[in-house]
TrEMBL record:
Transmembrane segments: none annotated. Gene3D superfamilies: 3.40.1190.20. This is Carbohydrate kinase PfkB domain-containing protein. Residues 63-237 form the Carbohydrate kinase PfkB domain. Pfam families: PfkB. It comes from Actinomadura fulvescens. InterPro entries: PfkB_dom (IPR011611), Ribokinase-like (IPR029056). It comes from the Bacteria. The lineage of its organism: Bacteria, Bacillati, Actinomycetota, Actinomycetes, Streptosporangiales.
Length: 325
Protein backbone atom coordinates (compact mmCIF):
# COMPACT_ATOMS: atom_id res chain seq x y z
CA UNK A 1 0.00 0.00 0.00
CA UNK A 2 1.37 3.42 -0.98
CA UNK A 3 0.76 6.84 0.54
CA UNK A 4 -2.00 7.64 -1.97
CA UNK A 5 -3.92 4.45 -1.13
CA UNK A 6 -3.41 4.97 2.60
CA UNK A 7 -4.85 8.49 2.48
CA UNK A 8 -7.85 7.56 0.34
CA UNK A 9 -9.89 7.05 3.50
CA UNK A 10 -10.24 10.12 5.74
CA UNK A 11 -8.79 9.81 9.24
CA UNK A 12 -12.21 9.97 10.89
CA UNK A 13 -12.98 6.69 9.07
CA UNK A 14 -9.59 5.14 9.84
CA UNK A 15 -8.21 5.08 12.47
CA UNK A 16 -11.30 6.93 13.73
CA UNK A 17 -11.89 9.20 16.68
CA UNK A 18 -11.91 6.50 19.37
CA UNK A 19 -8.23 5.65 19.17
CA UNK A 20 -6.10 3.16 17.25
CA UNK A 21 -6.15 -0.58 17.79
CA UNK A 22 -2.43 -0.75 16.94
CA UNK A 23 -0.67 2.07 18.75
CA UNK A 24 2.43 3.07 16.81
CA UNK A 25 4.99 5.89 16.68
CA UNK A 26 6.52 8.12 19.32
CA UNK A 27 5.13 11.61 19.88
CA UNK A 28 6.74 14.42 21.87
CA UNK A 29 4.42 17.29 22.81
CA UNK A 30 6.02 20.64 23.66
CA UNK A 31 3.80 23.34 25.10
CA UNK A 32 1.81 24.69 27.98
CA UNK A 33 0.87 23.05 31.29
CA UNK A 34 -1.51 24.85 33.65
CA UNK A 35 -4.09 24.35 36.35
CA UNK A 36 -7.40 25.27 34.77
CA UNK A 37 -10.77 26.13 36.27
CA UNK A 38 -13.60 25.33 33.83
CA UNK A 39 -17.10 26.73 34.19
CA UNK A 40 -20.16 26.20 31.97
CA UNK A 41 -22.86 28.83 32.49
CA UNK A 42 -26.39 27.43 32.30
CA UNK A 43 -29.03 29.74 30.83
CA UNK A 44 -26.85 32.83 30.95
CA UNK A 45 -25.15 34.82 28.20
CA UNK A 46 -22.24 37.18 28.77
CA UNK A 47 -24.22 39.92 27.03
CA UNK A 48 -26.82 39.74 29.80
CA UNK A 49 -24.31 40.56 32.54
CA UNK A 50 -24.63 44.24 33.41
CA UNK A 51 -23.91 43.96 37.15
CA UNK A 52 -22.29 41.60 39.65
CA UNK A 53 -23.97 38.19 39.65
CA UNK A 54 -23.70 35.05 41.76
CA UNK A 55 -24.23 31.92 39.67
CA UNK A 56 -24.14 28.26 40.65
CA UNK A 57 -22.95 26.28 37.63
CA UNK A 58 -20.99 23.14 36.72
CA UNK A 59 -17.32 23.83 37.54
CA UNK A 60 -14.17 21.73 37.67
CA UNK A 61 -10.47 22.16 38.30
CA UNK A 62 -8.18 20.14 36.02
CA UNK A 63 -4.57 19.83 34.95
CA UNK A 64 -4.68 21.24 31.44
CA UNK A 65 -2.87 23.51 29.01
CA UNK A 66 -2.24 22.93 25.32
CA UNK A 67 0.39 20.24 25.82
CA UNK A 68 -1.60 18.23 28.38
CA UNK A 69 -4.81 18.45 26.37
CA UNK A 70 -3.15 17.11 23.21
CA UNK A 71 -1.19 14.43 25.07
CA UNK A 72 -4.33 13.21 26.85
CA UNK A 73 -5.90 12.40 23.48
CA UNK A 74 -2.71 11.19 21.82
CA UNK A 75 -2.19 8.27 24.21
CA UNK A 76 -5.09 6.56 22.47
CA UNK A 77 -3.12 6.46 19.23
CA UNK A 78 0.62 6.58 19.87
CA UNK A 79 2.92 3.93 21.31
CA UNK A 80 4.71 6.49 23.46
CA UNK A 81 3.75 10.07 24.28
CA UNK A 82 6.17 12.40 26.04
CA UNK A 83 5.42 15.89 27.34
CA UNK A 84 8.11 18.55 27.55
CA UNK A 85 7.24 21.83 29.27
CA UNK A 86 8.33 24.18 32.01
CA UNK A 87 6.22 23.99 35.14
CA UNK A 88 6.26 25.73 38.51
CA UNK A 89 7.37 24.72 41.98
CA UNK A 90 4.46 24.83 44.41
CA UNK A 91 1.87 22.62 46.09
CA UNK A 92 0.33 21.77 42.70
CA UNK A 93 3.49 20.43 41.06
CA UNK A 94 2.89 16.96 42.47
CA UNK A 95 -0.68 17.00 41.12
CA UNK A 96 0.62 17.81 37.65
CA UNK A 97 3.14 15.00 37.71
CA UNK A 98 0.59 12.50 39.06
CA UNK A 99 -1.88 13.42 36.33
CA UNK A 100 0.72 12.91 33.60
CA UNK A 101 1.53 9.52 35.08
CA UNK A 102 -2.16 8.64 35.38
CA UNK A 103 -2.89 9.29 31.71
CA UNK A 104 0.20 7.38 30.58
CA UNK A 105 2.36 10.30 29.43
CA UNK A 106 6.13 10.37 29.92
CA UNK A 107 6.90 13.35 32.16
CA UNK A 108 9.81 15.37 30.76
CA UNK A 109 8.85 18.64 32.44
CA UNK A 110 11.45 21.06 33.73
CA UNK A 111 10.70 22.75 37.07
CA UNK A 112 11.36 26.45 37.59
CA UNK A 113 12.32 26.64 41.24
CA UNK A 114 10.47 29.03 43.52
CA UNK A 115 7.67 30.12 41.16
CA UNK A 116 4.00 29.07 41.13
CA UNK A 117 2.41 27.02 38.40
CA UNK A 118 0.40 28.77 35.71
CA UNK A 119 -3.35 29.13 36.10
CA UNK A 120 -6.15 29.57 33.56
CA UNK A 121 -9.88 30.17 33.92
CA UNK A 122 -12.26 29.12 31.15
CA UNK A 123 -15.88 30.26 31.25
CA UNK A 124 -18.30 29.35 28.47
CA UNK A 125 -21.71 30.99 28.34
CA UNK A 126 -24.95 29.38 27.23
CA UNK A 127 -26.27 29.79 23.70
CA UNK A 128 -29.61 28.94 22.08
CA UNK A 129 -27.63 27.04 19.46
CA UNK A 130 -23.98 26.11 19.17
CA UNK A 131 -21.26 25.89 21.80
CA UNK A 132 -21.61 29.39 23.26
CA UNK A 133 -18.91 32.03 23.70
CA UNK A 134 -15.73 31.07 25.54
CA UNK A 135 -13.77 33.46 27.74
CA UNK A 136 -10.29 32.12 28.49
CA UNK A 137 -8.14 34.03 30.98
CA UNK A 138 -4.54 32.79 31.19
CA UNK A 139 -1.89 33.75 33.71
CA UNK A 140 0.60 35.99 31.88
CA UNK A 141 3.49 34.88 34.12
CA UNK A 142 3.10 31.12 33.66
CA UNK A 143 6.40 29.16 33.64
CA UNK A 144 5.66 27.87 30.13
CA UNK A 145 6.29 31.36 28.78
CA UNK A 146 9.86 31.06 30.01
CA UNK A 147 10.71 27.74 28.37
CA UNK A 148 14.14 28.60 26.95
CA UNK A 149 16.47 27.52 24.16
CA UNK A 150 18.73 26.04 26.83
CA UNK A 151 15.79 23.97 28.11
CA UNK A 152 15.13 22.72 24.59
CA UNK A 153 18.76 21.85 23.98
CA UNK A 154 18.69 19.77 27.16
CA UNK A 155 15.86 17.74 25.59
CA UNK A 156 17.52 17.38 22.16
CA UNK A 157 17.90 13.61 22.54
CA UNK A 158 14.16 13.21 23.18
CA UNK A 159 13.33 15.39 20.17
CA UNK A 160 15.63 13.37 17.90
CA UNK A 161 14.23 10.07 19.16
CA UNK A 162 10.59 10.99 18.47
CA UNK A 163 8.78 10.30 15.21
CA UNK A 164 7.01 13.64 15.50
CA UNK A 165 7.26 16.68 17.77
CA UNK A 166 4.12 18.76 18.28
CA UNK A 167 4.40 22.53 18.82
CA UNK A 168 1.79 25.29 19.05
CA UNK A 169 1.56 29.01 18.40
CA UNK A 170 0.82 30.09 21.97
CA UNK A 171 4.54 29.67 22.64
CA UNK A 172 5.25 32.29 19.97
CA UNK A 173 3.59 35.01 22.06
CA UNK A 174 6.53 35.19 24.47
CA UNK A 175 9.99 36.07 23.08
CA UNK A 176 11.66 33.49 25.33
CA UNK A 177 9.38 30.54 24.49
CA UNK A 178 9.28 31.68 20.84
CA UNK A 179 13.04 31.18 20.58
CA UNK A 180 12.66 27.80 22.29
CA UNK A 181 9.95 26.75 19.83
CA UNK A 182 12.10 27.64 16.84
CA UNK A 183 15.02 25.76 18.41
CA UNK A 184 12.88 22.65 18.88
CA UNK A 185 11.68 22.82 15.28
CA UNK A 186 15.24 23.18 13.96
CA UNK A 187 16.56 20.27 16.05
CA UNK A 188 13.70 18.10 14.81
CA UNK A 189 14.11 19.11 11.17
CA UNK A 190 17.85 18.46 11.25
CA UNK A 191 17.39 15.00 12.75
CA UNK A 192 14.52 13.77 10.57
CA UNK A 193 11.83 14.10 13.24
CA UNK A 194 8.60 15.43 11.77
CA UNK A 195 7.39 18.82 13.03
CA UNK A 196 3.66 19.33 13.59
CA UNK A 197 2.48 22.85 14.37
CA UNK A 198 -0.90 24.09 15.58
CA UNK A 199 -1.46 27.64 14.33
CA UNK A 200 -3.05 29.20 17.41
CA UNK A 201 -4.34 31.42 18.93
CA UNK A 202 -6.97 31.93 16.27
CA UNK A 203 -6.36 35.69 16.30
CA UNK A 204 -2.59 35.32 16.00
CA UNK A 205 -2.63 37.72 13.05
CA UNK A 206 -3.69 40.49 15.47
CA UNK A 207 -1.09 39.58 18.11
CA UNK A 208 2.16 39.44 16.18
CA UNK A 209 3.59 40.21 12.73
CA UNK A 210 3.48 37.45 10.18
CA UNK A 211 7.26 37.73 9.82
CA UNK A 212 7.59 36.06 13.23
CA UNK A 213 5.21 33.23 12.32
CA UNK A 214 5.92 32.31 8.69
CA UNK A 215 9.47 31.02 9.29
CA UNK A 216 8.06 28.38 11.65
CA UNK A 217 5.49 27.33 9.07
CA UNK A 218 8.46 26.86 6.76
CA UNK A 219 9.92 24.32 9.21
CA UNK A 220 6.71 22.36 9.74
CA UNK A 221 5.72 19.06 8.12
CA UNK A 222 2.11 19.20 9.37
CA UNK A 223 0.19 22.42 10.02
CA UNK A 224 -3.15 22.38 11.84
CA UNK A 225 -5.17 25.58 11.50
CA UNK A 226 -8.58 27.07 11.09
CA UNK A 227 -8.85 28.16 7.47
CA UNK A 228 -9.91 31.64 8.55
CA UNK A 229 -6.83 31.97 10.80
CA UNK A 230 -4.26 31.21 8.13
CA UNK A 231 -6.14 33.27 5.55
CA UNK A 232 -6.08 36.36 7.78
CA UNK A 233 -2.41 35.77 8.62
CA UNK A 234 -1.59 35.72 4.90
CA UNK A 235 -3.72 38.77 4.14
CA UNK A 236 -6.52 36.95 2.32
CA UNK A 237 -10.30 37.15 2.85
CA UNK A 238 -11.40 34.56 5.45
CA UNK A 239 -13.05 31.62 3.65
CA UNK A 240 -16.49 30.43 4.64
CA UNK A 241 -17.48 27.78 2.13
CA UNK A 242 -15.78 24.65 0.90
CA UNK A 243 -15.08 26.30 -2.46
CA UNK A 244 -13.44 29.29 -0.79
CA UNK A 245 -11.31 26.99 1.38
CA UNK A 246 -10.26 25.00 -1.68
CA UNK A 247 -9.01 28.25 -3.23
CA UNK A 248 -6.37 28.66 -0.48
CA UNK A 249 -3.67 26.15 -1.62
CA UNK A 250 -1.78 28.48 -4.00
CA UNK A 251 -1.52 31.04 -1.20
CA UNK A 252 -0.34 28.35 1.23
CA UNK A 253 2.29 27.11 -1.22
CA UNK A 254 3.78 30.58 -1.53
CA UNK A 255 3.86 31.00 2.27
CA UNK A 256 6.16 27.99 2.80
CA UNK A 257 8.35 28.33 -0.28
CA UNK A 258 9.43 25.00 -1.71
CA UNK A 259 8.34 22.85 1.23
CA UNK A 260 5.41 20.41 1.09
CA UNK A 261 3.73 20.34 4.51
CA UNK A 262 0.41 18.66 5.07
CA UNK A 263 -2.16 21.36 5.79
CA UNK A 264 -5.18 20.40 7.90
CA UNK A 265 -7.59 23.27 7.33
CA UNK A 266 -10.60 23.43 9.67
CA UNK A 267 -13.72 25.19 8.39
CA UNK A 268 -17.48 25.24 8.83
CA UNK A 269 -20.09 27.04 10.91
CA UNK A 270 -17.87 27.01 14.02
CA UNK A 271 -14.58 26.33 12.17
CA UNK A 272 -14.53 22.70 13.29
CA UNK A 273 -17.16 20.84 11.29
CA UNK A 274 -15.08 20.14 8.17
CA UNK A 275 -11.44 19.62 7.21
CA UNK A 276 -9.54 20.07 3.98
CA UNK A 277 -6.30 18.06 4.01
CA UNK A 278 -3.92 19.46 1.40
CA UNK A 279 -0.35 18.78 0.30
CA UNK A 280 1.21 20.24 -2.81
CA UNK A 281 2.48 18.18 -5.70
CA UNK A 282 6.14 17.23 -5.99
CA UNK A 283 8.28 19.21 -8.42
CA UNK A 284 8.51 16.15 -10.68
CA UNK A 285 4.80 15.49 -10.38
CA UNK A 286 2.67 13.25 -8.20
CA UNK A 287 2.17 13.18 -4.46
CA UNK A 288 -0.59 15.79 -4.32
CA UNK A 289 -3.25 15.36 -1.66
CA UNK A 290 -6.59 17.18 -1.60
CA UNK A 291 -9.09 15.45 0.65
CA UNK A 292 -12.16 17.04 2.22
CA UNK A 293 -14.03 15.32 5.02
CA UNK A 294 -16.50 15.94 7.83
CA UNK A 295 -14.70 16.05 11.18
CA UNK A 296 -17.47 14.38 13.15
CA UNK A 297 -18.17 17.50 15.18
CA UNK A 298 -21.76 18.71 15.29
CA UNK A 299 -24.83 19.06 17.42
CA UNK A 300 -24.68 16.97 20.57
CA UNK A 301 -20.89 16.50 20.42
CA UNK A 302 -18.87 17.86 23.35
CA UNK A 303 -16.58 20.59 22.02
CA UNK A 304 -14.01 20.50 24.82
CA UNK A 305 -11.26 18.13 23.78
CA UNK A 306 -12.71 17.35 20.36
CA UNK A 307 -10.06 19.28 18.44
CA UNK A 308 -7.28 17.41 20.26
CA UNK A 309 -8.86 14.04 19.49
CA UNK A 310 -9.20 15.00 15.84
CA UNK A 311 -5.60 16.20 15.64
CA UNK A 312 -4.26 13.03 17.30
CA UNK A 313 -6.29 10.93 14.88
CA UNK A 314 -5.00 12.90 11.88
CA UNK A 315 -1.35 12.73 12.99
CA UNK A 316 -1.53 8.96 13.38
CA UNK A 317 -3.24 8.66 9.97
CA UNK A 318 -0.54 10.72 8.27
CA UNK A 319 2.37 8.94 9.93
CA UNK A 320 0.83 5.61 8.98
CA UNK A 321 0.39 6.74 5.37
CA UNK A 322 4.03 7.84 5.22
CA UNK A 323 5.18 4.49 6.59
CA UNK A 324 3.39 2.74 3.71
CA UNK A 325 4.84 5.08 1.07
Amino acid sequence: MGTAEATARPPVVWPGLRGAADRRFDLLVVGDVRLEMRVELDGLRFAELTADRLVYAPASAVVAGTAVNLARSAVGYFRRVGLFAKIGDDDHTGSIRRELNRIGVRDLCRVETGVPNGVAVMVRDDAPAGPGVRLLVADRDAPSRRLSEADVRSAAAEIRAADVVFLDGYALLSPVSRAATYAAARIAAESGTLVAFDLVPHDIDERMPRSEVLPLLGLADVIVTEAVTVARLLGAPPPVTSAETRALPPLLDRAVGGRRPLWLLRFGETNLENVLAYRRERERGGGRLLLEYASGYGEGVERAGFGDRLTSCELYWWLSARSYG
